[in-house]
Amino acid sequence: MPGLPININDLVNATTVESERIEYKESWNPEDIMHSLCAFANDFHNLGGGYIIVGIAEKNGLPVLPPKGLVPEQVDTCQKKLLELSRKIIPSYFPVSSVEFYQGKHILVLWATGGDNRPYKCPKNLVPNPTYNYYIRKSSNSVMATPDEERQLYELANRIPFDDRINHSASIEDLKLPLILSFLKEVGSELYQRASSIPFPELCQQLQIVKGSSEYLRPVNVGLLLFNDHPTNIFRGAKIEIVRYLDPIGDELEERIFEGPVHLQLRSALQFIQNTIIAERVKKIPNQAEARRFYNYPYAAIEEALANAVFHRSYELDNPVEVNIRLDRIEILSFPGPVPPVDKDDLKKDRIVARSYRNRRIGDFLKELRLTEGRGTGIPKIRRTMLLNDSPAPIFETDEARNYFLVTLPIHESFLPLNDEPDLEGSFIDFAKDVLALCRVPHSRLEILRSLGVNTGAASYRKYILPLLQLELLRLTIPDKPSSKNQKYLITNAGKAMLQKLS
User: Fold this and answer.
1) Overall average pLDDT of the 269-291 stretch
2) Does domain 1-157 have CATH number 3.30.950.30?
3) pTM of the model
């Protein structure tokens, strides 16, 4: 018996699937169900199709629980009628059907993914010589397409999202059963209990990660990205690169590369950031018992920004997702930019209403794993978590041609280097006099450290130059480009006064 790669409780309550992609039907209504199947198959907005749940009533868009359910005889009848309805859709379209036992009742779930042969049309009514129409989803409803929408459907016919396309250079052997079982177990799918007893090709078909005839069954790209041990062997850019800059110039840095199944590399990258980057401070508030806690970066903002980059990037390109951790900000860069019509002006709005998605299937898997939220909620969540942490507002950027998407998360001001108190004891006075005197005329970092006779690495920079910058006794000659190779340091008026005092 087929099963679903999703937790049934999460599905019924629209926890991991948007409510607009779920239709609840108290009983079997063949015409309505046929129209909805046709609309989900057309997947007009590339949302990934949807689900029809038969045996649960709906009120104001929400399921009425406990379910009314179906008796076993009704289930058998519905499944036989489903085959007839599927053949009335042109081209023929067959959803995945699964009988589930939920809150003591049998329900029938139809999983209708976006079809490979769109546009699809079906009869308006189940009568002899019917009129055929194209159906699409608008909000939570299945409606007949307008003439203009019909034209757009034809334009979409050859634009199956990359993650849902067959990969003809790979084979079903490239999909790994342990990774599939791990996923099914984690999401709480009932299919996990039976997966080991199902022929592997059939299991992959139920997950919709293979397509084709029995004699030419091939994986789709989303299956290779999640259920292959080394997806970079197939998609060169399917990785996350993290570069941590240890000084403003960029002479000293650490680099980490995360590969493997995309959901696992995402988790590993986030774990690395959480363990090595995230820092907390506690601030006592006068006349208040409870202290204020805040972070250099709220983890939830980084998690959402990086998950969105993995979700929305193009795996046809060789560019990895880049995370640059600088002294005062984190930059998360992915390629290309947002899918039209979203542009750089839309990124300034509080909420973005996107109607097309580059990777409809990857998004579904990441939501099932609770690695990202529903569509359209990413940017608002990042803004909200930064605000709650009293951090500066995040910045979202792309260019006119939408070549890239850049998210910048500024550090909390309390963690800025200029807000760290430098050590004014001991050797500070000894070296400050020499450095300030030298910088009456501009000198480079290398020249300063060599004149002191010390190591020219980042540690010496932080000890001998950075404190003078923090106290504004020195300034940069190219302030808008702190990492410029031509950068030099020059004494300020405050530095001249300090030098006079030290002399």
Assistant:
1) 82
2) yes
3) 0.68
